[in-house]
Design brief:
This protein is of the alpha+beta class. The chain has helices spanning about 25-45, 45-70, 80-100, 105, 155-165, 185-190, and strands spanning about 75-80, 115-120, 125-135, 135-145, 175-180, 195-200, 205-210. It has a 7-stranded mixed β-sheet with strand order 1-2-3-4-5-7-6, with helices on both faces. Helix 1 crosses helix 3 (about 80-100). The longest helix is centred in the N-terminal third of the chain and has 24 residues, at about 45-70. The radius of gyration is 19 Å and the shape is globular.
């Protein structure tokens, strides 16, 4: 599987936390809203103008050039209200199915309070991560790449994109994560340093890693 196997279950708890209201998301309603938006977009678009624009793009760059650009991997900030199914599906494959992490630990009710990210290849979501920012510290969690995308470099691109965004935020001074032991070298290449003793989280051995941003 190579160095791009990025799996881990990161769980951060303060010693004392105030009760929080958990956002209740109706997945069926979200899907229905997405379908409705797509239908409205299709109904409103000018088919002739779209075809003309595509023809001009192909004329300028050739069909192979258009296909090559479409195949490039990309990373974007995810909208949890819309991208929740894609993020959770990637995490379920990596954590629940492959590593046997209980669903109640993997889906912990904190996602609505985190920055979410998706890595895509050919427009298909294949990698994800979330970041919880507290008191100037960014905790990177739930980093996962689907089996089909491991070894493509998408995981590294995902992490570099996250770090670039964190470095541009003057309110954030450091990034931390809890890495499974077998991927510590991967995070070290990104600039993280391991610290402290090994510990178990969801039955998997981890080490805390940290880097200044």
């Amino acid at each position: 599987r190579g160095d791009e196997v990025i799996v881990g279950v990161n769980k951060y708890r303060k010693d004392h936390e105030d009760p929080i209201d958990i956002l209740d998301i109706d997945n069926d309603a979200v899907r229905e809203a997405q379908v409705a938006r797509i239908a409205a977009t299709r109904a409103a678009r000018d088919a002739g103008a779209c075809e003309a624009a595509l023809a001009e793009l192909e004329r300028r760059e050739g069909v192979s050039g258009v296909a090559e650009k479409a195949a490039r991997p990309s990373v974007r900030r995810a909208d949890w209200s819309e991208d929740q199914p894609a993020c959770l599906a990637i995490r379920a494959e990596a954590f629940i199915e492959e590593q046997g992490v209980p669903e109640e630990l993997e889906v912990d009710g904190e996602d609505a309070f985190c920055r979410q990210y998706l890595g895509e290849l050919n427009g298909e979501p294949l990698a994800t991560a979330r970041v919880r920012v507290t008191d100037g510290k960014a905790k990177i969690q739930r980093v996962a790449v689907r089996r089909a995308a491991r070894g493509t470099g998408l995981g590294a691109m995902l992490m570099r994109s996250i770090l670039t965004e964190l470095q541009a935020d003057p309110q954030i001074t450091e990034a931390v994560l809890d890495a499974q032991l077998e991927v510590i070298a991967f995070y070290e290449r990104l600039g993280f340093a391991a610290e402290g003793e090994e510990f178990l989280d969801a039955g998997i051995w981890h080490r805390r890693m940290r880097m200044a941003v």
